[in-house]
Design goal:
With 310 residues, the protein is mostly helical. The protein is 78% helix and 0% strand.
């Protein structure tokens, strides 16, 4: 888990989800309720712009580390020796990296003009595009297209849920937003969260089935064991979310309920970051389906680094 490439990927994916999720919360949940006081607006704007900066920095780190790994040279030599250029122009990862960079740049431009909906669409597209360089994106035919669509939905749903949680916490802590509006925002977010979780469960099942092939792979393979950790963290997040939805939300707008929701949302964020770290590791591991496809006997097979993704 200490591999710099894993960390770069995890940070990049988390920042991408947080940017898209914060924008989704602001546009879909907070704005329609006129719940955006000055404290909330300033904090959410700082969150969104901060995540955009992290996306750019971590994306560059991901590119450099991957290029160095492909050439088996130090990062500095990969940059000066032309490996980075080759990765950008001759690999699927590099092509998608350039497209996603353009999408994030366009989203930042839209933000500067206060065009929130275009910024949301562009950031969500950049998040979904990560799936093109995923394991699912390596499959051919109709199955490959189906898995790619499922993985894209999975990423966007993760942004809607996990990415929105910090913005929810900011809204609930905003001193200049009336309690009734904070309560309304929480209930509105709850509906959004239910949809996101449903998509995550269905798409996650599809992706796991496609990557593993059989349930036994969850404990018999390294990929499966890391995936099991991810599923356990996701289950813990569901418990926190269910507690907020069924216990605390009906007690709004009491101060104790607000505090309880923020506390559990903070735990969900921590668990979600753990999931991102697990996903970062999964992206550089060959899943069981790939090893069987390459070797026909369950061996490790070959797996090109430029085709790896979270």
């Amino acid at each position: 888990m200490a591999d710099p490439l894993i960390l770069a990927r995890a940070v990049h994916l988390a920042a991408s989800a947080l940017m898209a999720g914060a924008l989704a919360f602001d546009v879909v949940v907070a704005r329609p309720l006129a719940a955006a006081g000055r404290v909330y607006r300033f904090a959410v704007a700082r969150l969104i712009w901060g995540m955009a900066a992290v996306i750019l920095v971590s994306g560059l780190a991901w590119l450099l580390l991957l290029s160095a790994g492909i050439a088996n040279v130090p990062v500095a030599r990969a940059l000066t020796g032309g490996t980075v250029t080759i990765v950008l122009t001759d690999t699927r990862f590099g092509n998608v990296w350039l497209i996603r960079g353009a999408l994030i740049a366009a989203a930042m431009f839209a933000l500067a003009l206060k065009w929130k909906w275009p910024a949301l669409i562009l950031s969500a597209a950049a998040l979904a595009a990560i799936a093109i360089t995923a394991h699912a994106g390596a499959r051919n035919g109709l199955i490959g297209w189906g898995l790619l669509a499922s993985d894209m939905l999975h990423l966007v749903a993760a942004g809607l849920w996990l990415g929105s949680l910090p913005a929810l916490a900011i809204l609930l802590a905003a001193s200049d937003v009336e309690p009734r509006l904070r309560a309304a925002g929480t209930r509105r977010f709850s509906g959004l969260g239910i949809v996101a979780v449903a998509i995550l469960i269905v798409s996650g099942f599809v992706n796991a089935w496609a990557m593993l092939g059989q349930p036994a792979a969850l404990i018999e393979t390294s990929y499966g064991r890391v995936l099991s950790v991810k599923l356990a963290l996701f289950a813990a997040m569901l418990v926190c979310a269910a507690t907020n939805r069924l216990y605390w939300t009906p007690r709004l707008p009491s101060p104790k309920a607000f505090a309880g929701i923020v506390r559990l949302a903070s735990i969900e964020i921590a668990l979600g970051l753990g999931i991102m770290l697990a996903v970062g590791a999964l992206g550089i591991m060959a899943p069981p389906f790939h090893t069987h496809a390459e070797t026909g006997d369950g061996g490790m097979g070959s797996f090109h680094p430029a085709d790896r993704r979270d």
